[in-house]
Specification:
The chain has a single domain, classed as Jelly Rolls (Sandwich), CATH 2.60.120. Helices cover about 15% and strands about 30% of the residues. The structure holds 2-oxoglutaric acid.
């Protein structure tokens, strides 16, 4: 059912590497290319859609989910999105609301903590074992047991500002799965939300794992590309992103 081959099994290129030239290992700037800021996009156009290590511990694996996987996830997301404890725009302490709509599994995230119930007191939906197993396969480690999923839906105008995933009491990796419209995903550094960053196009079926030194890197979605998704996934418009995390909470 699930796509074979965990991301870390396949050979992984590093941003700036080109195995086909004697310049392998040189940074883009060393080869007369513009400094990074769109480095992964350059890497993709040079190498095709291969796994790329965007930063230490952060790996983008294109086309990781099969069409079957994506269809199963879209159907499941529809069920998770329904009330009670369904999909909603998250309200920020500032009073604003996020443009993405989110439903949580396992633990409910409200900025900036986790709870077992939603704002209206409904119990959060469970995170199914098959989804946790998908996360373990994504990181290539059967001992990885995520207990939180945030399922985000982006309509044509939704985006997500640069932020860290740091409300978990764990440094285990974050697994990110994308379905539907492509997006511009910005992966930054662990210090602040400004440059340096790398812009990566995440397409339907792509996997992005960030752990180790990149676990607390700032990241965000600057835009989606409406109309780029394949309706055969079951999603006729918009983008779904599922992040799996280990809460570290009991
Ligand atoms: O939609 C994405 O690709 C990123 C989602 C994200 O950053 C989050 O849920 O914290």
């Amino acid at each position: 059912m699930l796509a074979d081959g965990a991301c870390l099994v396949a050979p992984v290129l590093h941003v700036g590497d080109d195995p086909h030239t004697p310049e392998a290992g040189l940074r883009p700037a060393d080869r007369g290319l513009p400094p990074n800021g769109g480095g992964a996009v350059q890497a993709e156009s040079m190498f095709g859609r291969q796994p790329v290590e965007i930063a230490p511990g952060a790996v983008h694996t294109p086309d990781w989910l099969s069409l079957d996987d994506q269809q199963r996830l879209v159907a499941a997301c529809r069920e998770w999105a329904a009330p009670p404890a369904g999909m909603r725009h998250t309200r920020l302490p500032s009073g604003g609301v996020m443009s993405v709509q989110t439903v949580c599994l396992g633990w409910h995230w409200t900025p900036y903590s986790y709870s077992r119930t939603t704002e209206d007191g409904s119990p959060v939906k469970p995170l199914p074992e098959w989804l946790a197993a998908l996360g373990a396969r994504a990181v290539g480690d059967p001992s990885y047991v995520p207990d939180v999923a945030l399922v985000n839906f982006y309509d044509d105008t939704a985006k997500m500002g640069m932020h860290q995933d740091k409300d978990e009491d764990s440094a285990e990796p974050v697994v990110s799965l994308s379905i539907g419209d492509s997006c511009a995903f910005r992966f930054g550094n662990t210090e602040h939300r400004n440059r340096p960053w790398t812009d990566v196009e995440l397409r339907s079926g792509d996997l992005f794992v960030f752990g180790g030194p990149s676990r607390f890197a700032y990241h965000g979605v600057t835009r989606t590309r409406p109309g780029t998704g394949d309706p055969a996934t079951g999603l006729s418009a918009g983008r779904l992103n599922i992040t799996l995390r280990v809460s570290g909470l009991a």
